[in-house]
TrEMBL record:
<protein>
    <recommendedName>
        <fullName>Probable GTP-binding protein EngB</fullName>
    </recommendedName>
</protein>
<feature type="domain" description="EngB-type G">
    <location>
        <begin position="22"/>
        <end position="197"/>
    </location>
</feature>
<dbReference type="GO" id="GO:0046872">
    <property type="term" value="F:metal ion binding"/>
</dbReference>
<dbReference type="InterPro" id="IPR006073">
    <property type="entry name" value="GTP-bd"/>
</dbReference>
<dbReference type="InterPro" id="IPR030393">
    <property type="entry name" value="G_ENGB_dom"/>
</dbReference>
<keyword id="KW-0131">Cell cycle</keyword>
<dbReference type="InterPro" id="IPR019987">
    <property type="entry name" value="GTP-bd_ribosome_bio_YsxC"/>
</dbReference>
<keyword id="KW-0717">Septation</keyword>
<keyword id="KW-0547">Nucleotide-binding</keyword>
<dbReference type="InterPro" id="IPR027417">
    <property type="entry name" value="P-loop_NTPase"/>
</dbReference>
<keyword id="KW-0460">Magnesium</keyword>
<dbReference type="Pfam" id="PF01926">
    <property type="entry name" value="MMR_HSR1"/>
</dbReference>
<dbReference type="GO" id="GO:0005525">
    <property type="term" value="F:GTP binding"/>
</dbReference>
<keyword id="KW-0132">Cell division</keyword>
<keyword id="KW-0342">GTP-binding</keyword>
<dbReference type="GO" id="GO:0000917">
    <property type="term" value="P:division septum assembly"/>
</dbReference>
<comment type="similarity">
    <text>Belongs to the TRAFAC class TrmE-Era-EngA-EngB-Septin-like GTPase superfamily. EngB GTPase family.</text>
</comment>
Amino acid sequence: MKIKNAIYIESTTGADTSQSKTLPEFAFIGRSNVGKSSLINMLCNKRKLAHTSATPGKTQTVNRFMVNETWNVVDLPGYGFAKVSDKTRARLKRIIWDYIDGSENMVLLFVLIDSRHELMKVDLEFLTKLGEKGVPFAIVFTKADKNSKTALQKNTESIRNKLLEYWEELPPCFTTSSMTGEGRDEMLGYIGEILKDIHNNQTE
Ligand code: GTP
Ligand code: MG
């Protein structure tokens, strides 16, 4: 899929009534600092679309962007960030789950996992909750450029194996780098297929 344009629509913290919410949405979630906002910019080919920061906890609202005037990208706050007050953590958790539970247009949630580390407890807990709720998701390994080829292979394999201890089969998995563009074509191709299915179902 070609990205013709991507524009910022709005930042919200709860229910809202924007027109743009009627478009199919692909949302991005993962631990704080895993690279959600950077990946969105890489996919949309627009460096400053979503705000990024080396300091964890940058995204604190639900940020909506419209792509090709036909679908939305949603940048969510991160989870599992230790250095915030209990009050802030509870607020971010509420914002995340209000969106996931309440969104009528979210067709898929991309769950980002840092390719440099083992699967963390917070990731497993989050994925388990998605499974229990039947939320459709795919997994995205981020920051591939920060690994050697061997380490990347080893780490992603270890995360997959860990997940297979809990699931019979894995959801689609993508390996990406916002620095090099790795994984962009694969992710956009996958999004394009889903949008095509939605379109075909609507016109049947
Ligand atoms: P929060 O909004 O705080 O939850 O973070 P986030 O998940 O949106 O992460 P963000 O995109 O802001 O990136 C966090 C840091 O990681 C920034 O310093 C980015 O430059 C860096 N980063 C993100 N993706 C990549 C990548 O693929 N490769 C490298 N080398 N750095 C990355
Ligand atoms: Mg962010």
